[in-house]
Amino acid sequence: MSELQPEKRAEVAQKLSGKLKTGMTPLECELIWAIARQLAEDAVEAVRAALAESVGKCAFLPKDIGYTLAHDLESVAIPFLKVTEIFSEDELIEIAGDVSDAVRVAIAERQGLQAKVSNHLATVGNLEVAHALVQNETAALDDHGFTTITKRFESNQNLLECLAKRADLSPRIAMGLIKKVSKTAREQLETRYGMSPDFVNVLAQEAENHALLDLAEFKTAAEAMQYATDLNKKGELTHTFCLMAIRGGNLPFFEAAIAVRTGTSVQNVELILREGNTQATSLLCAKARLPSMLHREIVEKVRDVIEANNGVQPQSLSNS
Question: Which of 82, 127, 226, 235 sits a CA distance of 20 to 30 A from 35?
Fold first, then answer.
């Protein structure tokens, strides 16, 4: 075989598929697989790529040849792994752990991909792999796979929008996506899963509040006060938002929010809240127009934040 020119060896590889048929004699099998093994180890990439295309759909291809092609260069491995059916779920998972993300995309694009393999790809693959999985309607994904994708790529709006179009989302996953996707996608999920518009809007508002709170990390009281003031001007510094802040342990921002809602200096708000006096805190919360039923909880949450810091008061921004 080595005496042939690369073009001729590639031609042999291309014609090999025509020789593959069920009912071959042991001698025929031995001869064909011997040729295939030589071609799989050929020094010329084009020859190996031609072989991958040729034998990819052979259901009885020997595993050793398959593994050689699967771990070859991307030009060889990608066309082969897109179509070959010789590997089990566990074998595909093993291969996916050793190859590049470009090759993982090829595995993610396979027809009828099993959930076990999809879940593994969702865990180890990059964004392109996740896109390939989500857009492959024949790839099975269960709640574990969907959750992995949404957690790993929660900031990629395009991917989440594609995910929302999947017909196999469970109601639990759909409700989680409602908090992350656009209004159009929310409406589609609402219709598909029979959710009331009011319920969808509540979830969306909760997600928006969490997103705003994620930004509420400041180095000085002036920064915190400015952010709280801006939110208040837009009507977004609601009592629900304030409660979410203290429940999330963001005491410095909560103090800035109360200062803005009451017109009190942030220094005085800090003194009152951190002293832990229930009556004084209740009066301050009433002035901030926070529901009276929440006052005791706020006192407890401030205490919890301090205890979470081993009894040390969180840093005061007003002294920064």
Answer: 82
Mean pLDDT of 55-64: 93
Give 76's DSSP letter. Answer: H
Return d(Cα 262, Cα 314) in angstroms, integer.
22
Task: Calculate helix-pair angle for 295-308, 266-275, nearest 10 degrees.
Answer: 80
**Number of Cβ within a 10 Å radius of residue 144:** 14
Residue of 192, 148, 153, 186 whose CA lies nearest to 169 = 192
b/e 280-308 (16+ beta carbons within 10 angstroms → b)? ebbebbeebebeeebbebbbebbeebbee
Return all residues near 298 (Cβ < 8 A) that are at least 6 apart. Answer: 243, 246, 273, 281, 285, 290
Model pLDDT, residue 63 = 96
Q: Is the pTM of this model over 0.70?
A: no
At 21 the three-state DSSP class reads: coil
Q: For 146-169, what is each residue's pLDDT tens digit?
A: 999 998 998 898 999 899 888 888
- Cβ atoms of 138 and 111 within 8 Å: the answer is yes
